[in-house]
Amino acid sequence: MSAPARDQHAAFAPAPVVGGAATAAGGGLPPDRLPVEYVLPLRRSDDTGLTGLTDYLRDLTRWVDVTVVDGSASDLFARHAAAWRNLVRHVRPDPTPRGANSQVLGVLTGIGLARHEHVVIADDDVRYDEAGLRAVHELLDRVDLVRPQNHFDPLPWHAWWDTGRILLNRAFGGDWPGTLAVRRSTFRATGGYDPDVLFENLELVRTVCAYGGATATPAWLHVRRVPPTVAHFRGQRIRQAYDDQAQPVRLVAALAVLPGVAAALAARRPGLLLRAAVATVAVAEVGRRRAGGARVFPARTALAAPLWVLERGVCSWLALGRRLRGGMPYADARVRDPAHSIRTLRRRLAGNGPGDLVLWVESDVRAAGRPTAAVAGCRNEVTGSAAGRLPS
């Protein structure tokens, strides 16, 4: 758990800012721009892909205001500042909140500086188009948090492999993407979310649910994601399996894979494994076809699902070993908790205070209190047709 951060009555002290919002004559937004803040938390060890990211940021600034919270080393930060001068608002993370997860610290800074009520949070490999941003913006008029769905494009072998995970998750409700969107007022009223967890997106969604906010997972809202390098993909196998420890049903299912395979082989019944593989492909195909997904997920991606399940079965045991040794290495620290339960978060938020979560907003923002909607698990989730298909 993070040490208590700043005094909740202290004013937010933003980092030095480069760049600003686009305005029309008279001080308002240009008619073709959205009142949306795009927050990109960044921490790079090299400049691979800088040109592509800069081109994407240039496209984004045609539609929304952009804040890049850059925790990269000084030399890289300076290069980024030169590349993005007068293009986006480029800042250092606020040094006051403390925690192991630099992604969360970047989000805390970015939303603290947000100029609009609707905020999109995205990793540096996410690629929104204008239609996707407009859909998120319209959904945030109705819910507190939106969880879009990612797809890889292009699709090298390792992205094909990982798409097996995406399709299975879609079949059972929704994948966990590299982007979320949230109302600034809701985020500020919760006091933010814990920066000492590994699965930060799940932590944020559960924090909003525990607060009483409504969330939506529109299966039809497909947002492109650039695939990682092969080295990065390999390095994430155990780390992603560690996230399942915050979701007990998934964890039990993953841990059962290897014993199940061993039992089938010991009984000399390979047909059981073949039938299990066929069933897994069938479930993935349901996820692929759901809500128009066949437009962005090629038919061959469903075939990756059994391979991904076998990989997760192996890596879940390795991740459990990491837990017993104190947690998952992350940057220069070890993070033990993948995410907290809704019950734990609700208890922290009880009494209009989030316990020892980072208190980074002024008390008057929280004084209005949280919504009165009852929360039982995450039953305030809006999915499927209930979320409504918005025009693109």
From TrEMBL:
**Is Transferase one of the keywords UniProt gives this record?**
yes
One GO MF term: transferase activity
- Keyword annotations from UniProtKB, A to Z: Transferase
- The protein's name is Glycosyltransferase like family 2
